Prior knowledge:
Shape: elongated
Oligomer: single chain
Distance between the termini: 59 Å
Amino acid sequence: MKKKLVVLGLCGLLMVTGCGQKQIPKLEDGKEVVAEVEGKQITADDLYSALKEESGTNVLINLIDEFIISKEFTDEDAANSYADRQYKYLKAQYEAKGTDFDKYVLQYYDSIKDFKNMIAKDYKATKVAENYVKSILTEDEIKKYYEDEIFGTMTVRHILIIPSYEKDASEDDIKKAKEEALEKAKNLINELNNGADFETLAKENSQDGTASNGGLFENFSKENTDSAFWAASYKLEDGKYTTEPVESQYGYHIIYKVSGNEKPSLEDSRDKITAALANQKLNESSNSVQIYLAKVREKYNLNIYETTINDLYNKTINKLK
Length: 321
């Protein structure tokens, strides 16, 4: 009650100005004047015409997208959690280089909260685009990915020989170190050919963390393994080892295949496949998310009745393609 009385009293003091609001003048034709300078009157219509050409399209699409995203994506906790993780990651990255990240962010945003809200907003928009892409994937696309990219897990033993050289080594020194590592790997293969035990050689020679366990690397999948290592392992029959060293990003490997599991069924792999295909499509270009968001707007029967903004919107979308 006290607050209400205070506000009423304040309005009484400001009565001459309309309780804090200036009286908006109008022209004879009824147009509102929003500003005047040296006798030049700028009307609300003048302001609207200028704004719609400069930023009207962006403002309108942001409003439309906010509505659509509120319908399509409702997991606010996931978006906020993602924003928190990204903020912490970026902060650690910048501050490791001696930059005050919060101070840097506040050059462009009113608060850290606004910055996180922007990240969350982008996350939700990307998820809406991702879900749309998943909805238009064809069964042929899904089956092809299944045939080409889905494999069972494998278990192998391996011996890793890492070329040894200093960080500032010359090209000649690096080349020599690689030749020595390759030669050592070849010699170990010769020992295997002469009946040596693979597990024992791994324990004695491998420079990988699995050495103490005889080089055992269990149930690994394609997506989290060096491509050369995976390809060589996949080609081997169970109980066989590579007859030539396999070069990976880590060094030279000798691989012994223990077992390979059959790949999961198409239905068991469907979610993984659709996620991978959607990710591929969203990364085809820097504009992919915006292109698919435009498709989502079409799904919601978007109609822009204002001619100028509609033309600018269509030009913008066409440039994205």
